[in-house]
Specification:
By secondary structure, this protein is α/β, with parallel strands linked by helices. The longest helix is centred in the first third of the chain and has 13 residues. Strand 2, helix 3 and strand 3 form a beta-alpha-beta unit. 39% of the residues lie in helices and 16% in strands. The protein has a single domain, classed as Phosphoenolpyruvate-binding domains (TIM Barrel, Alpha-Beta Barrel), CATH 3.20.20. It is built from eleven helices and eight strands. An eight-stranded parallel beta barrel has the order 1-2-3-4-5-6-7-8, surrounded by four helices.
Length: 239
């Protein structure tokens, strides 16, 4: 049996992520997924227009290709809504602009079913329901398969990365542009580039079962990401 994505992330395998728009046509998505073996499809509600019906339709389409979907939620303060997003069909979520441990705690509680978390039961379009599992079996399946990502986008988050990478967090993903704003506004900050921040975070969480992700849009950037030690390679393809 093929190893599940969550396990592969925890074991430090390279994970390929591709970002697309939710209104992509089926044929175009098929073309993109033929480029290489992508492990995760990322969609965005933070900076892109979306509605719940479109999210449901997109996740159903992605499941035809047996690739899980991850959605970036609308705002950091919406961490309490993580379970609601997941009921629409994604196999994972990303929380943007995380800085507070309390945000992580809220996301973990909403992401995992009891007794690991407090996610509410319900939703007919959830990922994995096609396996005809009962309540307890599905809850266990989800807790072992769903992926939770935190986005690192400030100097504070970089310095506190180990505190944020709590048990149950699967990935830390860098938002380079917002991080640059934060670096530019911070006097006395020890790191001057995004790469230096990435190296620091990778060092801080090297003994934890957490993958670190960076954007890698071409061969050169992919090589550079690997040299830094990143295991999550993220590419955005315009539709």
């Amino acid at each position: 049996m093929a190893k599940r994505l969550k396990q592969r992330i925890h074991e430090g395998e390279t994970i390929e992520v591709v970002g697309v728009a939710t209104d992509i046509e089926r044929g175009r998505l098929e073309e993109i997924l033929a480029i290489r073996e992508f492990d995760l499809i990322a969609i965005d509600s933070q900076h892109s227009a979306h509605n719940e019906e479109r999210i449901v339709s997109f996740c159903e389409l992605a499941r035809e290709f047996e690739v899980p979907t991850r959605i970036r939620i609308k705002h950091t303060r919406h961490a309490y809504l993580v379970g609601t997003y997941l009921d629409l069909g994604p196999g994972g979520v990303m929380i943007p602009e995380v800085e507070e441990e309390s945000t992580v705690d809220e996301a973990l509680a909403a992401f995992y079913y009891p007794q690991q978390g407090r996610r509410s039961w319900g939703g007919l379009t959830r990922d994995g329901l096609d396996q005809s599992l009962d309540r307890l079996a599905y809850a266990e399946w989800w807790n072992n398969h769903g992926t939770l990502t935190l986005q690192i986008e400030s100097v504070r988050a970089v310095l506190d990365a180990r505190k944020l990478a709590k048990p149950g967090v699967d990935m830390l993903s860098f938002g380079a542009n917002d991080l640059l704003f934060s670096i530019e506004a911070s006097r006395g900050y020890p790191f001057k580039t995004v790469d230096e921040c990435v190296k620091h975070v990778i060092s801080e969480v090297s003994d934890l079962p957490v993958g670190v992700g960076v954007r890698a849009e071409n061969g050169e950037e992919r090589d550079q990401a690997r040299e830094l030690g990143a295991t999550i390679l993220i590419e955005r393809i315009e539709c």
